[in-house]
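Onboarding guide, step 5: your first structure request.
Type a short instruction followed by the sequence, for example:

Predict the 3D structure of this protein.
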Amino acid sequence: MTRSIVSGSAALIMVSNLEFVPGDLDIYTPLSQEEPALAILQRNMRFDPVSTWIPRGYANNEAILKVHRLEKGSKSVNVIIVQGEDPAAAVFHFHSTIVMNYLSAFGLYCAYPSLTLTDVGVMNLPVVLRDVGVRTNAEECFEKYRDRGVTLVNDVTKLVGHTTHECRRDAECPHTLRSTVDEQGLHVNLLQPTDAEAEYISRHRYATIWMLGGTMCGEQGTYFNNFVASIKASEITVSKSD
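The system replies with structure tokens like these:
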């Protein structure tokens, strides 16, 4: 197992009501598993390497080191190499919550189900503000997802139904500290692992902790930078809500 995950459009289409065809497949892989992941695609699945680079679209993601592009006929795969051992850390540097989903050996995960399942995304403002240029990558992504039917907002309090929003407490709030093992995310188990696989998962599974940050909801004052970190899931104690 390379501990890789599939994210981007291919994961979004599995958890949303949107109807579109993903342009390619984005696989996020830990640096230590770079060679095994590429070997599987090239030797077992007969994909041919095309290029290795850091494209502008990934340049503002602090977790990404480089991208390998492989092709087989009309099919294309991006193997995105992530620093550290937790590839999911890259997901929480994405431009908005609509794409904070991924498929892993553990199943399907959606970080903001109440938003994503209604085709709504909240912008990840600290990442957007770091993206500079005449036409930024974030702007291009926002346009692409709006064309696909996504509603994008820069303040969660602007959404219908969030009039009683509690900043830094509600699951949808960009200032709430979240983790991939909390109760606010959506976990869908797709496979029943064998005992050996379950033991491997238990020993190697990581949890990502994040806070998106940005300006306090509904205000123009206090600003928080985003925060993303990884820790062995076995080392986290999860407090259940009443």
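Each response can be followed by summary notes, for example: The chain has a mean pLDDT of 86.
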